[in-house]
Amino acid sequence: MKRQKHMRLLAAVTLLFLLAGCALETPDTAGTADPAPIISQPPAPLAASDGIDWNDLPETWTGTGGSRTSPALRSNTYLCITGSFYEETYLPTREIDGVSCYRSRGQLTALRDKALQASINQKLQEALDHLESQTDPLAAFVTEEALACDPLYRTSSIWPSFTLSGNLLSAGAYRFDDIYAFDSADGRLVCSQHSTQAEFCTYDLSNGRQLTLSDLFVDGTDLNALLNPLLSSALSAAEGTTDWTDGTTRGGLVRPFRGLPEDYPYFSLSDTHLSIFFPMPNPYIPGSYTVDLPLESLEECLAQPTAASMDYFDEGIESQLYFRYSPSLRLSAADEDLLTLYGQASLTVRPYLIAASGEPSVDAINADLREIYRSLAEQPLPAELSAYAEDPAAYLYANSNLEFYRGYIHLSLSILAGRSDDYDSDCTLSLNRFYDRATGQPIPLSAILRDPDDALACMAGMGFVIDDPAAHYNWYSYTPSGNFWVCAGNDLSQTCEVPACYFNTDFFTHS
Amino acid sequence: MKKAILLTVCVLTLILLAACGASQPSAPPEAPDPAVNVPDFTAESLPRLDGSTATIPLSEGIVKSLLGYDAAQAQAFVHHNTTHNAYVNLIDGRCDLIFVTPPSEEEYALMEEAGGGFAVEPVVKDAFVFLVNRNNPVDDIALSDLQKIYRGEITNWKELGGSDAPILPFQRPDNSGSQTLMYKLLVPKAEIMDAPTELRPSGMDDLVDAVSDYDEGLNSIGYSVFYYASGMYTDPDSKLISVDGVLPTAETIADGTYPLTDGYYAVYRAENDGDTPVGRLLSWLRSDAGQRTAAAEGYVPLSPLQP
């Protein structure tokens, strides 16, 4: 009994202690925990610019272009209008208040729908006039210090642009102003500023309708999810690139990209890209900037045909079929070790055709390109360039390009070396290939010689011996009526200029 | 019985003491001083600011708070000439205070060559963060393993518990803020492996071989700074990974638990410390009001703010 009393007493005391401990843990402010410290604040609003409210971000943003009207953009070729469907008139340069003013006007000339043509031309003229009416955007920088400088350069340029993508025509008006002032005593750059403004409109030539950005995409496409990540990535990638308006190096994004505002008007289309223009100023990248989104990245969602149609243009306007190509496709890991040309110091360009599935000509051309790049990587540095490889003042780079003509594709690869303090020291080597667009086979010298014996004799007379023109591919010409250049096999430094009369120039006109 | 009572009292006392210990609040982190006065500046008396592109919003926030400008006025007022040019302008006396990414070796050398006497201090925090493809099974990498990846010593994801696939470790260009952080916080420039390169347009007609951008590939790993990587539309195909078990968030960066933390810095002539316009501006920026201004512009404050 006594033991039981003691146990009950111990239990009560235990309970009291536990409750006391709990009470000590309970703060005075009646049952609530300490408020969590704050890390973030509501985001500060962004400045509006050029009528754009960068804070007006749609919670949902969907395409309004109707159902899809064209097959997916998977073909390796696209039709491009090459004939002139517009005219641009350059006005005389004027000097106004110390500013050199360059102006040009433009208008469409070849649309079949002349009423639509007139409407677009008027809208473009209104845009050009609006840009003309803007006050000097750089007036604040014309200070007494700048005016005292010599030289002081001020320019103002306004010009039109037209681009086509399938049925869609984009007309743009641009204005660029800049000021550069150099101290007359020490030549120091005192002032360097520029301003870029632009206005755009895009029309569907099939019905004359002016389109918004949303109208480019199939109904229901989630444009926040489609466009904003691409734009964010592209803006981030601008870091380290050169702003060619003033030669400066871009510093990257100002702040994380929050998205495009609703009905964003600064866009245009071309055969290969949807371009989004960020005007100056904007919240994300200093100056102005254009992001070119490849149509391939949007192909599943584009509502409009991407191949130009001749139906909307006057007769006589030319078109051309082009291959899609990548300056340098990211190849598989197995190919990466083939792609270094002349070491880490060189700048390399390795264009490849973008191959549609099972396209024989594209596969054949890309296979030959791979072999070219591999063989160049294995060759020792030509004697002319080896001296520069160890010279710290030397530059050495390779540059290549794919050009597309009626019926064939021209690869040109140049290797250039020289000294930065002696531009007369430049040494250029070149390698070329012409490929038949239909078969993908390289075109040998023998296929374009009018009379092989005469041509070879002419070259031999210049100390240039070609053993087998049927196996010789390194030749080029800039124009059908111009002379030809034949390079001596794998010795890229030996080039012979041969008159056009020895060549079958019909080659350049066949389709 | 007495022993039982004595034992019970001892146990209870221990329980009580433990409860008391648990209830003691941990020492609060050093909070910004709320008592710092707002300095009285005009557009003419405000220290001339310059800096990196990534700190433009910080300068804009300062201008909005201290000059009463709206967003558009602040945007027009603030002009940063990018990191290197900002240092040159500070050294040459064309500005008074720069806000920059963490100084690189070259930038410290620049200041030394100019005779030294510059103060460098953090004003907000940021972190060096890593991204992998969203479908990569690896969510966490030890700091030591990250170093081995970028020294080329770990080359396959299976060594980290992932798939049997080669690691593709992308880097950033040498003049980028992220690359400066790589050299400072993870692997020095002399020890880092070669970066993958690819073509990139460099001008009107030229294409140059440049450091490849992280490509969100399944086997790729890339890095950035939290300021950018935490944005809404940065990279939908990627995820941030934790380092040493800590995921980078504003909280873990502010409280220092994320291991790869740094910040953005104020750099100025040390003679301008104290009761000078520069000193007063920085004192305000370090205050609660200044840190809230920075947080509103998207930066992580030096320490958690009090509610």
Describe this structure in words.
The complex is a heterodimer of chains A (511) and B (307). With 511 residues, chain A is α+β, with helices and mostly antiparallel strands. Chain A has helices spanning 2-25, 114-133, 144-147, 223-236, 333-336, 360-378, 383-389, 452-461, and strands spanning 77-81, 86-90, 94-96, 99-108, 152-165, 168-182, 189-204, 209-211, 242-243, 248-249, 267-269, 273-278, 289-294, 319-323, 325-326, 352-353, 394-405, 408-419, 422-436, 475-477, 484-487, 495-498. In chain A, strand 11 and strand 12 (273-278) form a beta hairpin. The longest helix of chain A has 24 residues, at 2-25. Chain A is globular, with a radius of gyration of 32 Å. Chain B is α/β, with parallel strands linked by helices. Chain B folds into two domains: 21-125 and 263-296, D-Maltodextrin-Binding Protein, domain 2 (3-Layer(aba) Sandwich), CATH 3.40.190.10; 126-254, Periplasmic binding protein-like II (D-Maltodextrin-Binding Protein, domain 2), CATH 3.40.190.10. Chain B is 35% helix and 19% strand. Chain B contains eleven helices and eleven strands. In chain B, the strands form three sheets. In chain B, strands 1, 2, 3, 5, 8, 9 and 11 form a seven-stranded mixed β-sheet that branches. A two-stranded parallel ribbon of chain B has the order 4-10. Chain B has a two-stranded antiparallel ribbon with strand order 6-7. In chain B, helix 2 packs across helix 3 (71-77) and helix 2 crosses helix 11. Chain B starts with a helix and ends in an 11-residue tail after the last helix. Residues 18-32 and 199-209 of chain B have low confidence and may be disordered. The interface between A and B is large, with 69 and 76 residues.
